[in-house]
Amino acid sequence: MMKGLISRLNVTGKRQGPLPIRLPHEDAALTSSDITQTVDNILYSGFVVPPAFIDPNGHMNVGYYSVLFDQALDLPWDRLGVGSASTDATGCSTFTLESHVTYQRELHAGDPLGFTFQLIDFDGKRIHYFMTMLHAHERWLAATSEAISICVDMATRRSTTWPADRFERLRALHETHSQRPRPAEVGRLIGIRR
Q1: Distance between CA atoms of 38 and 3, rounded to whole angstroms?
Q2: pLDDT 10s digits, 37-53
Q3: Are the C-beta atoms of 93 and 84 separated by less than 8 Å?
Q4: Are 140 and 80 in contact (CB under 8 A)?
């Protein structure tokens, strides 16, 4: 089987070289177990907090958490066939409609990072997902990100339904991920507790 390649950027914006992935049209018959293993076993290597992301408080600036979550999201997106690697083939992309980040622990220059991805829900056009950002070696939780993204037809710039094979991948992953405990941060409201 031919393997597709995508380019990956490191946190400084420099290309790290090709990352092999299996594209959806090459293995459209993946089972729920297959797609879950494909997404859950992603190695988020190469993510390190660069010195340029550190603010005057001596820790990673709040804005860069979202940058890193977005870069890490490229990996599960490409395995699900909804990332930039499949835009040319499908004419569709994903746009974020809403996101919520929680900051759990400070990160500093040189901290290596890992991530997790959980599909919370989906429908014909949208994906509700949750990610964690972890210290890659010590495995403590640094931050969480919850978001909803929508499928967009790039020719019309309007929402559209997922291509059938992408929808099936989402369905297969959701079959497994929906059985997992719902993270406490999902659906959290912002406000001052009294």
Answers
A1: 14
A2: 999 999 998 999 999 99
A3: yes
A4: no
